[in-house]
Write a structure and sequence with these properties.
mainly alpha, single chain, 2 strands, two-stranded antiparallel sheet
Length: 112
């Protein structure tokens, strides 16, 4: 009976360790590897932040844009008003950037 309990306990510990390792790999190691790979290829972007990513910054910029909004005409630059975070990304990192929550790559080259 004791050997059965120790066998079951060891299987639970091994299964728990495997689950913890897979979560660490999913949440931290894989996004960091994607970020490293994209930086090697010359793409720049904000560094990875655990779980929430840039959502706080996006929400803050959106609130500020709504608060400071004004009527726009067709000749105005509307990107800072409608998509302030992406305007910030273009101004900071250029037209080719990535957002490293899930490894999204954005190409901001306008075809005019």
């Amino acid at each position: 009976m004791a050997t059965m309990f120790s066998l079951l306990a060891s299987l639970v510990v091994i299964g728990g360790a495997w689950w913890v390792w897979s979560v660490i790999q999913w949440v931290w190691l894989r996004p960091r590897a994607i970020e490293r790979c994209l930086r090697k290829q010359g793409l720049n972007g904000p560094s990875y932040r655990l779980l929430h990513g840039d959502t706080n910054q996006i929400a803050t910029m959106a609130r500020q844009a709504v608060k400071n909004s004004k009527p726009l005409s067709f000749s105005d630059d509307f990107l800072p008003t409608i998509l302030p975070f992406y305007h910030y990304i273009i101004q900071t990192y250029g037209n080719f950037a990535y957002k490293c929550v899930c490894g999204y790559i954005y190409f901001f080259e306008l075809l005019v």
